[in-house]
Amino acid sequence: MIQVYGIKNCDSVKKALSFFKNHKLEYELHDFKTDKVSSEKISSWLRHVPIKTLFNSRSTTYRELKLKELALEDEAKAQWLAKENMLIKRPVIEFDDTLVVGFNEENYKGLFL
Asked: Which domain covers residue 42, as residue numbers?
């Protein structure tokens, strides 16, 4: 089953969920607001994608926390992802041994159909 990580009201997550529904693909949503992602899970994701793919430096949370001023190294960014899940780019999709970050309809068609 496809595992979707994100928040329900995120536009990219909504697009991903709509794609899965429209193509009758089973999925399970893990909402960051109610189901915190562990540092172990984040570490496993980082074995599949680089930190720059997973860490959302364009988010409101990033700006509110003033993280740009800290000039974080990759290890510190990973720690922040575990501490503040809203810094994770959305959605994060786990399927078989594949990890996809973000929504791209063409990419999804190639992976899931």
From this structure: 2-112
